[in-house]
Design a protein that fits this description.
about 160 residues, alpha+beta, Thiol Ester Dehydrase, Chain A, 6-stranded antiparallel beta sheet, two-stranded parallel sheet
Amino acid sequence: MSQITINSLEELESYQGKELGVSEYHTITQEQIKNFADATLDHQWIHLDENRATIETPFRSTIAHGYLTVSLLPYLWAQIVKIGNVKMQVNYEIESLRFNQAVTVNSRVRLRAKMLSVKNLRGIAKTQIEVTLEIENSRKPAYTGVVTFLYHFND
């Protein structure tokens, strides 16, 4: 994987309609799931009770919170694209997010990204990125969706 560097609205526009790449794999650990549960106060047993999850769920293990996998977007996105020369980046919107498959503990996931559109909003770049969180050795992704970032480039 090689990271793309983009430093201007014009450079962003040149990637419109193109796949940007994929991130490295990230392993979802039980400790990460527990820490996310503590941070979000979501302590549902399917995420935390390893014994019960093994017996009572079709996954045969604990699963990551869907929102934990979504929260990995900035980390994984930064492995694909480095946006330089910006005053500020704003996470603006997530559209059509669909969770397709649970991510079991110790699964490895990676992000695949495609630049759908770039619009110039009076000097602010509004980008729509198609994202797919892939699970290693699975044909079905964890989720798909479209994220929108706003980039305020330096003049």
